[in-house]
Structures
1.
Amino acid sequence: MVHASSRPMRIAIPNWQGRISPVFDVAENIMLVDMSGNRVDLCQELVLPATDPYERAQLLHTLRTEILICCTLSRPHQMALVSAGIRVIQHICGQVEEVLEAITNGRFPGSLLMPGCRDRSKSEHLNLFLKSAHCKRSERRPKRKGEENRDV
């Protein structure tokens, strides 16, 4: 029996000079990261050609992105991504490599949260999310149109 969770989890991180882009809406580059458990399987960088919220969401959906980790984004972009079935984790800042390390370790230190968002509950929430993302991916997201049934 093959489960959807055996497929790598794809995370998108807007990237500007090695750091998480300050605002997703105007980010020009995105790093796609495939994770299997606590291991990075693939890391590639792409140019984001569109700035329209729904075009960006459709592109990330087509690329099979499950999670977007960003610093901040506008409400229209957030709504477009959520409508496309992509989970958004915002208020994360810092070096992309530090964020990848936090994901693989399953612990988000408060130093990766934007100033003003560094309360303990936010960090604890992210840590719980990371644990559930590694363990319960197939339960979190319904299959997208065109995805094969891997639970059979």
Note: Confidence is low (pLDDT under 50) at residues 135-144, 147-152.
2.
Amino acid sequence: MDQGYISSKSPFQILTVKPETIRNGRSYIINLNWGIHMTLKSNDITVAIGLSFYQDIHSLGRCMRSVVRNLPIKNIKVFAVDGIYEGYGNLREGESGLSTDGSRGLIESYMDLYGFKVRLSDYPNQKEYVKRQRYVDLAAARYCDFLLIMDADEYLECKDQDAFINELVEIDKAWKENSDLISNVHNIKFVERNNLGYIYFAYPSPRLWYRPGDMEYMDNHGMFRRKVKRNVTDGKSYTIENMQMWHDHNLRPKDRQRQSFIYEKEMLPRLERDYNPKNDQ
């Protein structure tokens, strides 16, 4: 699944898109820095955490705690991207569109603790897919092997860190044995909780990207594609067994939940209405 669309109608539905028709068959030159090399060992694997946030200190605190508690620090880099999405709300004159609720200070406190392992990037007033591309580009620029995509209201659970890293080693090994048979995009078990704390959805979500330099968001926040040409339409996608991601809004105030609902249901479709994935099939 190197190209896809995560359907808003159902979290279980992923619509594949033919690579030769996407955006008139654009192709790219392979970055030689991502060339074939020896299979990585567990100590060599680098997992970038691509984290988008804005004015969300309580959820962000839970998210960051889950990252450092559930992933081996030696294997991770966190790219936290701050900034309001275009269309999310009206800024007052003089406002920058960056968080002012303490979220930035929280990330900076992790920078003090973990140094270069955590980086804060400012990218306000951008369309959602543009802001999300920021952490893809940062992970690629630093040659991270994997990108794990998160939002501030999501958090991780891993009962065996070594087993999780070994799963990534196996993906890397399989790719290097035959890259045409293996996808860049792999699944994390994703669990949704409602405001009462009950689980109401659980499904595999394509949040783990191998070789992020090969990937890009399309002009819709829920769509992505492999930008490097390959010999087959699809490759095998793995579902990670030793990691799951949780999602709920319970730490967000009611007005924030209401604002997010308006953005997702009303504003975002207007911003992305010029794009219809059916046109690329």
Note: Residues 44-280 form a domain with the Spore Coat Polysaccharide Biosynthesis Protein SpsA; Chain A fold (CATH 3.90.550).
3.
Amino acid sequence: MLVSGTSLMCVQQRQRNDSRAHTKYHVKHSGSNYLAFTGSKHYQYFCKGDAMNLKLADFKMMETRSPNGVQVILRFGGKYDLSIVQNELSYGNKQGLYEIAVFDDVNRVELPGITADGDTVKGWLTEKDVDNIIKKMYTVTKEIPVQV
């Protein structure tokens, strides 16, 4: 179902703030969020009221081949990307746990409250731990994440 009117406002706002704004989006409503499609790419948008309820399960983990595993990258505005991985090289993978890293442009960075001082990667995270990190990233950036 194509959404319109006020339901589409959060997606339209994200389009204006997105470097892909010139791209035509096909938008579908899915629960409390909106899915935007451009060609074969899939972007997921959330409205502000949903931001504190975001969970890893709200996003689609993508398969990776080198190293073998899964990953999702969440963009928080134009400043930070949060990479969430579970692969054959990630910390905690053998226990079914996740590893995260925060990127500022192309560099991994420390982010107080997200990563430890002197560290740019945080591993051995449960799904609930990752859910809390997504919420903290929203709190720090005041930006609703977009899956890229």
Note: Residues 1-9, 12-17, 19-32, 34-40 have pLDDT under 50 and may be disordered.
